[in-house]
Amino acid sequence: MRNVAVMIGVALVAFVTPAIAQDVVPNNPALTDSFYFALGAFVPKTSTSAQLDSTDLGAGANVDFERALGMTTQKVVPDASFRWRFAEHWRFEAEYFQLNRSGDKVISQQIEWNGQTFPVGTEVQSKFNFSDIRTSVGYSFFKSKDKELGVSFGFHIASYDVGLQAASVGNEAKKITAPLPVFSAYGLFALTDEWSVGGRLDRFTMSYDHYDGNISSIGLDVNYQPFRHVGFGLAYRSLFIILKASKPDFTAQFNQTFQGPLLYMNASF
Questions:
Q1: Per the CATH hierarchy, to which homologous superfamily does domain 2-268 belong?
Q2: Average pLDDT by consecutive 10-residue portion of the chain (269 residues)?
Q3: Which distant-in-sequence residues (6+ apart) come within 8 Å of 173 by Cβ?
Q4: Is 238 exposed, middle or buried (0-12, 13-18, 19+ CB in 10 A)?
Q5: CA–CA distance, 158 with 136 (Å, rounded to integer)
Q6: What's the whole-model pTM score?
Q7: Phi, psi (degrees; rounded to nearest 5) at 78
């Protein structure tokens, strides 16, 4: 009988232990640390078209910078992000990347750009430098030790330095900075003490001041933090911008997509 009791006890322990283990709430730094920093390599596949119209000299044409001007569609660029949990349910986030590209091509179609004509057969040097600073303040309406869901409001501050140049025509370039407001929804979940997953969606359609258009952005992250303060992650980022900026002397229009993987290393405390 004693042996039977021991066997039953062992069986109960073997059965109950996994159940208890499953009920243990993960203690993951991604949800508990106040400060989070990440630095990585973003590899976006890019599609870019733009139009620059002169108020005095007339409308131009929409230009596909990859096809018409020979710009590369994919490039490795640095990406940096920061998160600060400054209260139990509140957090501040910022993320930055910059993509600078240039092209040099003999064009096969006439291009009208800022009131100037670049004829067929002209060798055109082009540049399209873009950077995005994403900032937001979020409130987690559901927050536990291993899960959070929330909403936030912030800006994608998009900066452009775009130009076309040819020996027979000259240099036509413009710099534009556009603060684009967005509303966001986000979630972050701890799977174990080391593994976590998170995601966010930014979206806004706007017409204010000199700007008109819409923006959408998606971020998905899988983070592995085997050390107390250091971890690694694989993520996906996408950014879609349709923007019209009207100034006294010109009107610029942009249609852009950036999407691709992001590999990063993070630190938190």
A1: OPCA outer membrane adhesin/invasin (2.40.128.100)
A2: 40 39 81 97 97 81 93 96 97 98 95 93 97 97 96 96 94 92 97 97 89 94 97 98 92 96 98
A3: 127, 161, 162, 163, 164, 165
A4: middle
A5: 14
A6: 0.87
A7: -75, 150
